[in-house]
Structures
1.
Amino acid sequence: MSVSGVLKLVGLDDYINPSQDCIKPVEVASSSSNHLQQQKKRGTIAMETDGVYSKTATVDGSVKAVEITLNDCLACSGCITSAESVLVSEQSSAEFYRVLESNTRAGNSGVEVRVVVVCVSTQSVASLASTFSLSMEQTYSKLRRFLLDIGVHKVYNLTVANDLSLVETSREFMERCETGDGLPLVTSACPGWVCYAEKTHGEFILPYMSSVRSSQQIMGSWLDSVSGGRAVFHVFIMPCYDKKLEASRSEFQTAGGGREVNLVLTSGELTQMIRDKVASLVDVLDDVAEFEQSMMVDGLYVTEGDRGSGGYLEHVARQAFRRFNQGVDIPDLLYKELRNSDLQEVVIPVSNNPTKSHLKFVFVYGFRNIQNIVRKIKQGKCDYDFVEIMACPSGCLNGGGQFNSKDSQSDGQMRLGQASRLYQTLPYREANSNPNVNIAYADWLENEDQLKYSLHTQYRKVETNLTRLNIKW
């Protein structure tokens, strides 16, 4: 199996569940008449690129094909950690290059090529800017040029998709506040947290989870809707390995049975690709190509108060204050640090809510804090109305795929600090003020069915197979 060289298991000290044997072992058929004889014979088995097992040496009997997908990994409760990294050949830089090389061969033969579209998260831009000592704008410009030079057809950022996710999350929160049901609303943009919730807490937590898609999957849905039937290969550059898991979910398949997001690479994987090709992003010329006119084409912006994870708490709290205080804007949100800097709350007064005099918000980063808030929700002792959850300590800027795992702890903290400062240099803009968001609702999400399909999803309890017979400590 070919995987990216930078994939490593790191930072697995937050939470570890007892492991178990694989729930889908390779089965070898044998007949009763020559069972003992078959046991003595050995053969060589290879796994093909499509995941099917085949014999590479002559043996008697047959080998039963077994398919193991990322969804099978999601159905296994053997490895729940803060950075659940699954090594699969489909989600690697090698697969990315394979598609680009296939396009080159097809182009030389006059055959229609797959349109390769790359979408880059703002957190990944910050990671690359920190690595190569560039500004955010320089990094994004040079990165576009690098990707276009190696055969990519289009490069987007996720600004509009993130704004759509924020706007829809605030709408969902207002609806729950009015009915009083389903509070606290818990964000679901972090696939590591979603995976943990589905496997470990199921029906206790899922009713509180937001149904709004993450920016990755909103963008994936839009790209699929505008493909016009052409063969398109969607690649996303994200700060976290768990985004590979998110892309593989069955809920995010196209009408034709493919994936809305074909491949996810982390910031670290892209960094290694750049170094393999040009040594440094500094050596790449700035991109001077004009941006296409599209609702999803935008500059790099962040919402006010966004600390690097999308700004869900900040946006929803500001919208709630405006909604429940006769349209008055709140000047600044006051954060109160609780047990640590990854656990902070905000309280806002409300004047025209019939059931509450104030609303409480909290962001919860890292599994140690997550387990405490989950315990309170399950016990009915959580007094928060909105909970922003991210699996990684310090949030998405510190995602498992952001920085080099060989860095010492002090180097990692320094790099995180640099990325955070670079992230904060981006201009602020409220998601509701993004003109492209209004265009998207008018032109793309023109009816309720399309809106629900493209901006929302659902989560499910994952049945585990953990017994005394297969448990391993």
2.
Amino acid sequence: AETGLNDPPPSKKAAPPVCCPEVYTTPPPQPAERKPGQLSAKQVSQFFTEGYVLVKNLFSPEELQPVRDAVEELVDDLAERMHKAGKITDTHKNAGLFKRLTLLNKDFPGAAVILHKQGKLPQAFRDLWSHERLLNIMEQFIGPEIAGHPIWNLRTKTPRNEEVTVPWHQDNAYLSTDALGTLQPTAWIPLLDTTKDNGCMQVVRGGHRKGITAIHVCCVGGTWYVELPVDEMENTLGCDLKNDVVTCEVPFGGVLFLNNAIPHRSLENTTDQIRWSLDLRWQHPDKPCGFEGIKDVIPMRSAKNPDVKPDWAGFESVDRTATQQKQMNNEAGAADEFDTTIQGPWMLRWEIVNHNKHTKSVLGEGRSKIPIWTKA
């Protein structure tokens, strides 16, 4: 085949982008006809200008009840497995959705982490992720070719628990550098009214506009989380933390949409109820997802191929957290259903300034077996 004068040598891979402001600030062409659930022009503009938009009452409580029911079933399954394995003596069967996991976590510290990393997609989760209204909104953000991102989470935010309180970060910090040029909108969907008291989200509006992933450090306290230092937000991203931090109290039925470059965090849950939420992500199916070699995207909608349907069985057949752990030299943790640690390649991307049980496997021999991610 002929090659052009400007083509890169076939043996070399193009360098990943280091700055992509247009990805996060420029909306795609909007649909010619308004579809159910789609946002107003003002709301779309806010998403690209400020990096987030809060949409109240996108779903009715009745529409989200199956998701609540599915979470209850997941908690029940975990309790029964822990009881059968002799990890706990009381399954707290009648404690209810907003109390039970707290009691299980007290009896077996790390139970909330086990459920968080489990990665099961009940039918109600699948239906929500591929819901017509959410996909219609994604079309406004990324265009008509839509896939689910491999990173999705059930947030098991038990009260006063460091392991479920996420510090300031950009989502891109958990991905490879190749993904900086891919817009990956998140829908943060709480399963109850969220307030500053029970651990709602905070964002730094406009912190995405430079299209840069600032320098993060790892790992915070006794967790696996990276953290975006205040001086990086101010000096590298140009954030005004006195005026631009927005506390996003999302009602039950509402959705907070974020992009993958905006700094955000969750506050501590100081109530006596669990703050359950789901975060779901999407992107263009042909662009880098930042988790290559671990798990792929799941196509959900295509204007080019209207017959596309999500392959849920194939997607769920890959255990994301177990694959991460294997690649980070924690084979034992990947095989143990009650392991309470989490590892991932972001631990290779950023400087580890605090070691704990989650980073232990990164220090061992055999690091050459780990896929190489670019250090910031």
